[in-house]
Design a protein that fits this description.
The protein has one domain (about 10-40). By secondary structure, the protein is mainly alpha-helical. The model has no long low-confidence stretch (mean pLDDT about 90). The chain is about 75% helix and about 0% strand. The protein is elongated and about 30 Å long. The longest helix has 18 residues, at about 25-40.
Length: about 45
């Protein structure tokens, strides 16, 4: 897995962190998608 060209891995790590902290499915999905979109727009 290439980390430099893959925005999904950092977004997934953030989503796992949110899931662990909030125990909310909607917050996990929302934060993961938002992180993925932002990373694709800003960096990748």
């Amino acid at each position: 897995v290439e980390i430099t060209d893959n925005a999904r891995l950092p977004a997934a790590i953030l989503a796992v962190l949110v899931a662990w902290l909030t125990r909310s499915v909607l917050a996990t999905i929302g934060s993961g998608l938002a992180a993925l979109w932002c990373l694709n727009w800003l960096i990748f």
